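To illustrate the input format used throughout this study, we show a single complete record. The first block contains the structure-token representation of the backbone; no residue identities are included at this stage. The design step must infer an amino acid for every position from geometry alone.
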């Protein structure tokens, strides 16, 4: 799968990797109208996709002061999107 390959919902492999990082607790985001995403402490190189994920309601900050950086969390919709893509245990 390349970064341009799409899942059934139309999200790229890169966007899905960003969602997985959030699900694994490795991501933070700024509390903002255009939230920036950080993975493993580093700014994500594709902030436009991070903004799209936030605006689509797939990731969100759990709260915080505007401008602060807080742990990112998956919304229920984001969890539902990743669930069929998770490897079987």
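Output of the design step:
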């Amino acid at each position: 799968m390349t970064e341009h390959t799409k899942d059934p919902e139309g999200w790229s492999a890169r966007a899905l990797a960003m969602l997985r990082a959030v699900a694994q607790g490795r991501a933070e985001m700024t509390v903002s109208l255009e939230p920036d995403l950080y993975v493993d402490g580093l700014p994500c190189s594709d902030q436009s996709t991070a903004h799209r994920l936030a605006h689509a309601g797939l990731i969100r900050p759990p709260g915080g002061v505007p401008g602060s950086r807080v742990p990112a969390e998956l919304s229920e919709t984001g969890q539902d999107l990743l669930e069929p893509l998770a490897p079987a245990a």
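Structural context for interpreting the output: The helical segments are 13-23, 47-55, 76-82. Confidence is low (pLDDT under 50) at residues 1-6.
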